[in-house]
Design goal:
Strand order of the largest sheet: 1-2-3
Largest sheet: 3 strands, parallel
Helix content: 40-55%
Bound molecules: adenosine-5'-diphosphate, tryptophan
Radius of gyration: 21 Å
Length: about 325
């Protein structure tokens, strides 16, 4: 039996290098291994985007991004989370077997509150909706960046609670990290749509230049030897280049006489080249929104058929049918 691969991404802003190297790149690579399900988590996004037109635009944008970056709708099922409303019902069923303590331990919730985001109920129970997303498709593997691993462990716990009480309904999912699961942002912290420290995948021209040139570095003079390992420009550059090119830049930094400005220019050129063909494809797809809508519609139907089966079993096992 083929493994079910599933992952989601929130349409809260434009996608960035962290999303690509942490998640999307491996999502696309995994198309060869099975029939993956990838969805745009618009229910989740409601915890931060509360403007209907913007949410609609961002949702379609993510679909266009995936297709431009190589998602093949013949191999993968791409859909909107909200086209499977069954996940919200399963969220409730899972909530009734989950303790407050589990959710109170969520790092991502605590980090968001620490950053001044209002502690809403939706944000608090976000991991329950995410568990429903995963469990409803009987997912085996969930490819994500490192920040999402705890949420997947919570989904394992919730599957266990439900199965223990009512009988085996859910499979135990496993997280899968990419080889670059934590991409730093322009300020050196984790790159994130909510931290204003991103380099967008589809940025070009001056906007891209500004983002790359704005990477925060220390103030060592050009002559000084520099440690590549603590240096964001070098870490980002490493994502794009061969082992030889990576070593060459590391040696230059260590030798001294090599400044951050020069390294940023090299990085800029690499980012620009790496995504050039995807950018062109994106411009084409932008003109063909009906096609993208159709891909999502078909994907939604396919996903919903799967979800109905699990939900109906879960309802039956807990006495709601
Ligand atoms: P963001 O944190 O920017 O809002 P999302 O939460 O929508 O991004 O994440 C979408 C996917 O991208 C998830 O699998 C997440 O783990 C991954 N991801 C996000 N930021 C990074 C990063 N800086 N490094 C690696 N992976 C990341
Ligand atoms: N919470 C994830 C994120 O912010 C998005 C997401 C929602 C997801 N449901 C999911 C990821 C299910 C994997 C599986 O990145």
């Amino acid at each position: 039996m083929r493994k079910r691969i599933l992952s989601g991404i929130q349409p809260t802003n434009k996608i960035h290098l962290g999303n690509y190297f942490g998640a999307i790149r491996q999502h696309i690579a995994m198309q060869q291994e099975g029939e993956p399900f990838y969805f745009i988590a618009n229910y989740h996004a409601l915890t931060s985007v509360q403007e209907a037109a913007r949410l609609r635009d961002l949702t379609l944008d993510i679909a266009i991004d995936y297709l431009s970056l190589g998602l093949d709708p013949e191999k993968s099922v791409l859909f909107k989370q909200s086209d499977v409303p069954e996940v919200t019902e399963l969220t409730w069923l899972l909530a009734t077997v989950t303790g407050m303590g589990l959710l109170e331990r969520a790092h991502s919730y605590k980090d968001k509150i620490a950053k001044g985001i209002a502690p809403g109920v939706g944000l608090f129970i976000y991991p329950v909706l995410m568990a429903a997303d995963i469990l409803i498709y009987q997912s085996d593997i969930v490819p994500v960046g490192v920040d999402q691993v705890q949420h997947i462990e919570m989904a394992q716990d919730m599957a266990g609670y439900f199965n223990n009480i009512y009988g085996e309904v859910f499979k135990r999912p496993e997280a899968k990290l990419s080889s670059t699961p934590k991409v730093p942002g322009t300020d050196g912290q984790k790159m994130s749509k909510s931290y204003k420290n991103t380099i967008e995948v589809f940025a070009e021209g001056n906007i891209l230049k500004k983002a790359v040139m704005g990477i925060v570095t220390d103030s060592l003079p050009v002559e000084a030897p520099k440690d590549p390992e603590t240096n964001t420009v070098y870490q980002l550059y490493s994502l794009f280049v061969s082992e030889n090119e990576r070593r060459e830049m590391a040696e230059r930094f260590v030798a001294g006489g090599y400044g951050y400005g020069d390294a940023k220019k090299k990085l800029l050129q690499k980012v620009d080249e790496y995504f050039a063909s995807a950018r062109e494809k994106r411009k084409e797809l932008e003109k063909n929104r009906d096609y993208v809508e159709e891909v999502l519609r078909k994907g939604g139907e396919r996903a919903r058929n799967e979800a109905r089966q699990t939900l109906s079993k879960a309802r039956k096992y807990c006495g709601i049918d």
